[in-house]
Write a structure and sequence with these properties.
The protein has 20 helices and 23 strands. By secondary structure, the chain is an alpha+beta fold. Among the domains are: about 200 residues, Heat Shock Protein 90, CATH 3.30.565; about 150 residues, 2-Layer Sandwich (Ribosomal Protein S5, domain 2), CATH 3.30.230; about 35 residues, no CATH class. Strands 2, 3, 4, 5, 6, 7, 8, 9 and 10 form a 9-stranded mixed β-sheet that branches. Strands 1-23-19-18-16-17 form a 6-stranded mixed β-sheet, with helices on both faces. A 5-stranded mixed β-sheet has the order 11-12-15-13-14, with helices on both faces. Helix 3 packs antiparallel against helix 5, helix 3 runs parallel beside helix 6 and helix 8 packs across helix 11. The longest helix is centred in the middle third of the chain and has 34 residues. The relative contact order is 0.10. The N terminus and C terminus are likely disordered.
Length: about 700
């Protein structure tokens, strides 16, 4: 039996912890138009026959189940609309026909994506059910229509938008969309409204305007507020900038332009990288201390299978690996065959080099994959003719030939680079040997923890107040700072499904510590033992004892710091738990006030301002609640812990490379880079605690 559903705020992004706005109520989206049933219903209540079968045609399935196509109807799904249009333009760039892509956030809330590619074909279909319609209209109104299915005979040999549902989904989920195309000296235009309904046929509205291109496509769309009820339709500039910058890195020389025309947020940013992946690796390592200044980069091609490879890598003095895979420009956050091939070759070639140069002694064991990847930042980008992704999210590449292709190319080309750069090669091997020593020390620390656990009898930390349920799906653990707040949380919990683990002060910053030092920290030991799924390379998300791990800290600066330290630990040492969506942040209120005899709790400044707009004559001084200890257990339960009334912030990772970078900036040793980051993003701050 599952607990009641929470009001869950999904934080798709890269910041490790930040306060966000109260989610709006979530009424159901407008129901799509349904085509009549195949036969008349039987009329019997609850009957399940042919009359109960409904057929959704055209774009109706998208409006009925938007989450199946864009992931969610929150901010993640909203920005996915931009990615779908941008990916089409990037496909033109990968095919060699596009040099510049511009994304403009309009003052009225719309978004326009311009490219100087060939322009979507406008000639009409001459047969079939779409006879007479322009090709562009079919692309906009029919799912799985596009130039990406024919291999050698299709419009694209290499494409990221494999499924062909991209721009049609954007059309379906927009209240208005305008398509403009320049081809053969003519400027074509067509408008759609109400979730993808054409207002007229595609038509010529003039000659190609003189605006720096002779061919190309412009898609301007306004997301439908009825679909994006959860968090609204206000695009986040930083989210768009991060994606465009990554696309510019992956497509050497491609110019990506971002323009924000919204009042008080006006800006123009251009990304273009002549060095491609070399610049990408330098960017990711900018907040770290590189082990050497050179970046190892190589390319290769497999003509028979239609595959190309581009890899760049550089080690730093840190302790965490950052290998980021891409296939046809799509981030494969779960890796896949190309990443597997790279890792296998990397371990083999470095051990061979170490043995050949007598850096690894004959009596010593080989370095493991974890040893050689410590401190490594690498980009593994492949382009394949017929990519096989796992699902529409494209999280993992399944093309088996990509593994052997990448493995063979990496072994040969990296081996050559090591021979040509002996100073750098020696540093890599020595760092791997140091990591091996730390791994042995960490193993001893783990064994010590296991011996301590075995001797203690029950095996769980003494201060853990566990729940009685053994079903991880319904079990949750609150990590609470301080024994006092922990005691209040124990009184407020549901002992059947809610566990409480008090921690003392701020845990170790694992960004600056190797795992052997980390495992000696008492608070981290307690976390690892309570969650029960191991840590680091031994972590197994299937063994997690709770499917909600909730950071519960005060709503002030110290509380934010504690949450950030916890999330850094989870991201670095239990990342699969973050990717599975098991990590949450509790949202205790920052203010309280009284309305009549009733006490009202307000989450933050935004909620307080909204309250005052609704009650401009409210005369009470708001009370600021900085500490969980200021609440009694009934208040803590009602506002923060009861699934029926609380709001949780779910922490997820969409762009792993950017998440890795921001974690390093915010939690690493480079003070100047951290200061620059804070100054640059200051105007995106929603709640600031003085």
């Amino acid at each position: 039996m599952s607990p009641p559903a929470d009001n869950i705020e999904v934080r798709v992004s890269n910041d490790t912890a930040a306060p966000v706005t109260e989610p709006a109520p979530q009424p159901a989206a407008k129901a799509p138009k349904k085509v009549a049933a195949v036969t008349k219903p039987s009329g019997k209540a609850g009957a399940y026959d042919a009359g109960a079968i409904q057929v959704l045609e055209g774009l109706d399935p998208v409006r009925k189940r938007p989450g199946m196509y864009i992931g969610s109807t929150g901010l993640q799904g909203l920005h996915h609309l931009i990615w779908e249009v941008v990916d089409n333009a990037v496909d033109e760039a990968m095919a060699g026909y596009c040099d510049r892509i511009t994304v403009t956030l309009l003052a009225d809330g719309g978004c326009r994506v311009d490219d100087d590619g060939r322009g979507i074909p406008v000639d009409p279909f001459r047969s079939g059910e779409h006879k007479g319609k322009s090709a562009a209209e079919v692309v906009l109104t029919v799912l799985h229509a596009g130039g990406k299915f024919g291999g050698e005979n299709g419009g694209y040999k290499v494409s990221g938008g494999l499924h062909g549902v991209g721009v049609s989904v954007v059309n379906a989920l927009s209240e208005r969309l305008i398509m403009e195309i320049d081809r053969d000296g003519k400027h074509y235009s067509q408008e759609y409204r109400g979730g993808g309904k054409p207002q007229a046929k595609m038509k010529v509205v003039g000659d190609t305007p003189k605006r720096g291109r002779t061919t190309g496509t412009s898609v301007t769309f306004w997301p439908d507020p009825a679909i994006f009820l959860a968090e609204g339709t206000d695009f986040v500039a930083r989210t768009v900038l991060e994606r465009l910058q990554t696309m510019a890195f992956l497509n050497k020389g491609l110019e990506m332009v971002f323009v924000d025309e919204r009042p008080e947020r006006e800006q123009t940013v251009t990304y273009q990288y002549k060095g491609g992946l070399i610049d990408f690796v330098k960017h990711l390592n900018a907040s770290k201390e590189p082990l050497f200044s050179k970046v190892c980069q190589f390319e290769d091609e497999e003509e028979a299978e239609g595959m190309t490879l581009d890899i760049a890598m550089q080690w730093n003095t840190g302790y965490h690996e950052g290998i980021h895979g891409y296939a046809n420009g799509i981030s494969t956050t779960e890796g896949g065959m190309h990443v597997e091939g790279f890792k296998t070759a990397l371990t083999s070639v470095l051990n061979k080099y170490g043995r050949d140069k007598n850096l690894i002694k004959e009596k010593d064991p080989n370095l493991t994959g974890d040893d050689v990847r410590e401190g490594l930042t690498a980009i593994v980008s492949v382009k394949v003719r017929e990519p096989q992704f796992e699902g529409q999210t494209k999280a993992k590449l399944g093309n088996v030939p990509a593994r052997s292709f990448v493995q063979k190319a990496t072994y040969q080309r990296l081996g050559e680079w090591l021979d040509e750069n002996p100073t750098e090669a020696n540093r890599i091997i020595k760092k791997g040997l140091s990591a091996a020593q730390a791994r042995a020390a960490a193993k001893n620390a783990r064994n010590a923890i296991r011996r301590k656990t075995a001797l203690s009898g029950a095996g769980m930390p003494d201060k853990l107040k566990d729940c009685s349920s053994k079903n991880a799906d319904e079990s949750e653990i609150f990590i609470v700072e301080g024994d006092s707040a922990g005691g209040t949380a124990v009184d407020a919990r549901d002992p059947r499904t809610q566990a409480i683990l008090p921690i003392r002060g701020k845990i170790l910053n694992v960004e600056r510590a190797r795992i052997d030092k980390m495992l000696k920290n008492n608070e981290i030991q307690a976390l690892i033992t309570a969650i029960g799924a191991g840590v680091g390379d031994e972590f197994d998300v299937e063994k997690a004892r709770y499917h909600k791990v909730i950071a519960l800290a005060d709503a002030d600066v110290d509380g934010s710091h504690i949450r950030t330290l916890l999330l850094t630990f989870f991201f670095r040492q239990m990342r699969e738990m973050v990717e599975a969506g098991y990590c949450y942040i509790a949202q205790p209120p920052l203010y309280s006030t009284e309305v009549g005899k009733e006490k009202v709790y307000l989450k933050d400044e935004i909620a307080k301002d909204a309250f005052m707009r609704e009650r401009p004559n409210h005369k009470k001084q708001f009370q600021r609640l900085k500490g969980l200890g200021e609440m009694d257990w009934e208040e803590l339960k009602a506002t923060t812990m009861d699934p029926e009334t609380r709001t949780l912030l779910q922490v997820t990772v969409e762009e792993a490379a950017e998440a890795d970078l921001i974690t390093s900036i915010l939690m690493g040793d480079d003070v100047a880079t951290r200061r620059d980051f804070i100054v640059t993003n200051a105007r995106d701050v929603q709640n600031l605690d003085f």
